[in-house]
Design brief:
The protein is of the alpha+beta class. Helices cover about 25% and strands about 25% of the residues.
Length: about 775
């Protein structure tokens, strides 16, 4: 990573650190959420009603265009060629055969690519979303095995793929760090996440551990993981009258458009990026090399371009989750009260990016313990840059932490659920902040009763024919976030005696139901039926910037819609004038109800939106407003929580593990749409089952190449691997968040691997501390 980018990340970290010291000192009513959102008090409206996704008919009917389904006239198709060494230089390129192949329009390498700036790396500014600090096709350097080194354009995809296979490269290799041992030998450094140290020290954890009458001290490992969205990464783009139009699959619409503009030295409004539908993202659908290369090739060839990565191409270009080695040590009294907690270890990343796996994040707020030592260290290797992957840090960190707690429960002879409840904190143990809302004990009690936890067998005692049966549990946590930059544009249009509302947010829809939830929240705020609200999203032309990541998009949208609704109400009140029943009222005295504005404490004083617009001679009214600064999660400790229960069968002969039942009990504030929420929870759990039992990127340490870049060799759960998954939730609103809701996109996966591993131990008596739990570890 360059000195400049490192300095930018450090600066971002310093600003965040200063805010985290100052914001907790402010009075509650100075902070967004200090006064509860009025929607929290509404118990019988749209919120909490199961609503099918509004875009469902479009998707099942084939009417939802994904990135690789857009078309331009005269479009060429792109294929990439990838480096086959871990580090070195390209000394010769033989492109004659490729250039002479049928249908070929262009062969582009570093020798003829347009001059471009390196995309600013994620975390170095509010708009930067580049993957690393490596120039893209600007020189002869190779930095990882799989780096794109050429692009072929042709009249069809098949012609482009064939021509790319004909390219011949000669390399001069230089020594590369491709083994973990060599990376450690070159030096270990303190890990940073978003510019801040991954380290917490409270008391003397090591001394308290030695003094504890009961303790566990174990090492756990997790492997590399790769993204496998249903829709592989793709983009269709064109240069039109000096502007760049991109149809992409992106979780960061506005930010990616701005970064692309910087790459090509353009003004931000000269790049238009749309991303109406994203076929699975999980952290991976951002800016990578392929979009930049395709835009450069389109500029060079003077033709629109479609680039669609193959499944192997995703493994070569798109980062995933890196490996971890973790130590978890817990000291406890005889009654199970924790006296010491150590969670430390190693993550790996490249020399050119700043994304270690921050596996201690969930541990910071999980349990009450007076002595804490948390630390993530980093070693660097020549490999593909890491990126966010569903619940970065928490997903793998909870595997180690929750497995260790299960081991401690065995040592103490205390039920694992009861041990966790005994160590519930009343304040955040590392920050000291009060919890905004924490009802995990309720989730534990409800989940245990529903799952039949009281029937859990003693270790290695229950059988069903050739199957050993066991039950395990774990907790999960994921923080509440709300990122700055969110705006909403609200437009009311008069339609006779009624109105329609159009709400626009620069957000992304990855299939989680964002458009539906946004419509529900907007309809509820405006007092309109759901069928009178339309939603626009996934377009950089919409004001604001909302990233679909960190389980924060719904909160960001909600805060922006609050601000826009308040501004709209104030404007309508001005239009109402002195002839309105609302005359003389201030904006604070009114609210939306029944398709109009009404006095809060005297609903009889009201006027419909249509009436106000008609008397003012207006057909429509529109406002754009930014959400409040996201300070609440620095003032309170805010998290989603889960209590997870798993039953497995382990075949005595083959070692096969079958998950027979799974239940997730969630504490995530108010649930806005039970139908899409249940789908989100189940999807996260399924991904967690994959992490527990099968997912593993196989990395060849001889040459730094990923060896299993396909779904034939990188295994993910299929229908027969997934049992009936039961989900329940507390549905207790958080008084300090928009709508009383927390994010739910990532809490589903956290803790799942530990629940499975703990169930396997209960079934067999064997403790698996290295994921995935494959047959060879149980035979």
């Amino acid at each position: 990573m360059s000195i400049i980018d490192s300095a930018k990340q450090t600066a971002q970290g310093l600003v965040m650190g200063a805010l985290q010291k100052l914001v907790p000192l402010a009075p509650d009513n100075w902070i967004p959420g200090g006064v509860p959102d009025p929607l929290i008090a509404r118990k019988h409206g749209l919120i909490g009603t199961p609503v099918s996704r509004l875009d469902g008919p479009l998707k099942v009917g084939g009417g939802a265009p994904f990135a690789a389904e857009f078309r331009f006239d005269g479009m060429a198709y792109a294929a990439l060629a990838y480096a086959t060494i871990a580090r070195g230089r390209i000394t010769a390129i033989d492109s004659a055969a490729a250039e002479g192949a049928p249908g070929v329009v262009l062969v582009m390498t570093h020798r003829n690519a347009p001059r471009m700036k390196t995309p600013a790396m994620f975390g170095t500014s509010m708009s930067a979303v580049g993957p690393d600090t490596i120039p893209i096709l600007q020189d002869d350097q190779v930095h990882w095995n799989g780096q794109p080194v050429a692009c072929v354009l042709a009249e069809t995809q098949e012609q482009a793929d064939h021509a790319a296979s004909l390219l011949q490269f000669t390399y001069r290799q230089v020594p590369a760090v491709t083994t973990l041992a060599a990376a450690k030998a070159r030096g270990i450094e303190q890990g940073l996440f978003m510019g801040q140290p991954l380290r917490n020290d409270i008391g003397d954890a090591e001394a308290a551990l030695v003094a504890a009458p009961h303790r566990v001290d174990r090492r756990y490992t997790t492997p590399r993981h790769n993204h496998n969205p249903i829709e592989p990464h793709a983009a269709t783009l064109a240069w039109i009258d000096g502007e760049l139009v991109i149809h992409d699959a992106s979780q960061m619409v506005a930010q990616q458009a701005q970064t692309m503009a910087e790459v090509f030295g353009m003004k931000p409004d000269k790049v238009r990026l749309t991303s109406p539908y994203v076929g699975g993202g999980f952290g991976s659908k951002g800016l990578w090399e392929h979009q930049v290369i395709a835009a450069a090739a389109a500029k060079l060839a003077g033709r629109p371009v479609r680039i669609a990565l193959s499944r192997e191409g995703v493994y070569r270009v798109v980062g995933g989750r890196t490996l971890t080695e973790q130590r978890v040590a817990i000291g406890a009294q005889a009654d199970g009260r924790f006296t010491a907690l150590v969670h430390s270890g190693l993550s790996v990343m490249t020399p050119h990016n700043a994304m270690p796996e921050p596996f201690i994040l969930g541990t910071r707020s999980a349990y009450a313990v007076p002595n804490i030592a948390l630390k993530v260290e980093v070693a660097r290797m020549q490999m593909l840059a890491n990126t966010f992957m569903r619940a970065p840090g928490e997903a793998v960190g909870t595997f180690a932490l929750e497995s260790a707690i299960d081991e401690l429960a065995d040592d103490l002879g205390i039920d694992p659920v009861e041990l966790r409840i005994r160590n519930e904190p009343d304040r955040d143990p590392t920050s000291g902040l009060p919890f905004s809302s924490r009802h995990i004990v309720t989730a534990w009690r409800q989940g245990a009763e529903r799952f039949g936890w009281s029937d859990r067998p003693q270790t290695a005692t229950r059988r069903d024919g050739a199957w050993r049966i066991g039950m395990g549990c774990a907790t999960g946590t994921y923080p509440y976030y709300r990122m700055p930059g969110a705006k909403a544009r609200l437009t009311l249009t008069r339609d006779g005696d009624d109105v329609r509302a159009f709400v626009e947010v620069a957000a992304a829809e990855m299939g989680m139901g964002t458009g539906t939830t946004t419509a529900i929240v907007t309809a509820e705020r405006l007092g309109l039926p759901l069928d009178r609200v339309d939603v626009g999203y996934g377009d950089s032309a919409i004001p604001g910037a909302i990233m679909a990541g960190g389980s924060q998009q719904t909160a960001a949208i909600g805060a922006a819609v609050i601000a826009a609704h308040n501004a709209l109400s104030a404007e309508l009140l001005k239009l109402a004038g002195n002839d309105s029943p609302l005359a003389g009222l201030s904006a604070k005295e009114i609210g939306s109800k029944g398709g109009g504005l009404a006095k809060l404490d005297d609903p009889a004083r009201r006027e419909s939106y249509a009436s106000i617009l008609r008397r003012a001679g207006r057909d429509s009214i529109s406002v754009t407003e930014a959400g409040s600064p996201p300070l609440e999660f620095m003032h309170w400790s805010m998290h989603s929580h889960s209590a997870l229960f798993c039953e497995v069968g382990v075949d005595d002969v083959t070692g096969e593990v079958r998950v027979r039942r799974f239940l997730g009990a969630f504490d995530c504030g108010r649930i806005l749409n039970p139908r899409t929420a249940a789908s989100q929870f189940r999807g996260g759990i399924v991904m967690g089952l994959g992490m527990a039992l099968m997912e593993e990127t196989q990395f060849d340490e001889r040459n730094g190449r990923i060896m299993n870049p396909s779904l034939a060799e990188y295994h993910v759960p299929v229908h027969l691997d997934v049992p009936e998954i039961d989900v329940i939730w507390t549905d207790i609103p958080d008084p300090h968040t928009p709508m009383g809701a927390h994010g739910i996109g990532e809490i589903g996966i956290t803790g799942v691997a530990a629940a499975v591993a703990n169930a396997v131990h209960n079934a067999t008596g064997r403790r698996i501390r290295d994921l995935p739990i494959t047959l060879d570890k149980l035979l």
